[in-house]
Known about the structure:
Elements: H1 6-18, H2 21-26, E1 55-61, H3 65-70, H4 73-80, E2 84-88, H5 99-102, E3 109-113, E4 124-128, E5 134-137, H6 142-145, E6 150-154, E7 159-164, H7 175-195, E8 198-203, H8 227-238, E9 241-243, H9 244-248, E10 275-280, E11 287-292, E12 304-308
Parallel strand pairs: 1-2, 7-8
Antiparallel strand pairs: 1-12, 2-4, 3-4, 5-6, 6-7, 8-10, 9-10, 11-12
Pfam families: Exo_endo_phos (PF03372)
Protein name: exodeoxyribonuclease III
Domain Endonuclease/exonuclease/phosphatase: 59-301
Amino acid sequence: MKRGKKAEEAATDGENETGSASAKKTKKAKEPEAPILYEDPPDKMTSKDGRNGNVKITSWNVDGLRAWVKKNGLDWVREENPDVLCLQETKCAEKSLPADITSMPEYPHKYWAASDEKEGYSGVAMLCKTEPLKVTYGIGKEEHDKEGRVITAEFPNFYLVTAYVPNSGRGLVRLDYRKTWDVDFRAYLSELDMQKPLVLCGDLNVAHQEIDLKNPKGNKKSAGFTPEEREGISQLLESGFTDSFRELYPEQANAYTFWTYMMNSRGKNVGWRLDYFLLSSSLLPGLCDSKIRNKALGSDHCPITLHIAV
């Protein structure tokens, strides 16, 4: 998530931090409050029904693959060691991919999608240790698929879909398009779910509830927190999918995956939870843990990791 909300978020943060000028004159300046940080707890490796997790998936909006590689993002990936790595906002045509990632022996099966029309825009990737049964690109609608936003991999027991959902943009210039996307993407996922359960991961470009961002009151007209976008993800969840993080941590506040680069937002943990693992209901008994790796640097998003028994 880049455009559309940074200025609003920074402004809201500034209002909360500084107060009015008149208040400053009459009151002694307050010491800034210490930020409330989220501590990612130890990984849980056993599901509710007693199975051990046997699939580990990591998703990360890297905000430009080439820059992220230069910031040593792959070192973190090797340490995390997921079975599947999904990346969003790669901003990189396949011909321009860094050799550091295309030659990774840990992931012999690599899949890339990029924007057809705009170089350095959008893009997703999926790197797998085990070869999927089948891989497809897009959701079957040209108006969406030309931007390189979705890769779907079929595995024996589930589908894995990684997505970079369109941003509604500064001034909400793409909100109408986003609403169309939400309807079409939900239909695509529901059709897949009828064949085999699925895991959806990626940057969904929406904070679902007020608990999912630091400053909800100041952002109700900002891209990523409009009523229309929130309704879009609500309808997706109502159609048979579950937000894995909220399933396990329903009351956990201050757990974010995106922070604008402005105003030291990450240091102050003024963020948004925009990155998700959504699961088909039939996969829920195998859910072990849904992690927010907020210590990992290299992007304005942090990675998230799913442990599941399938």
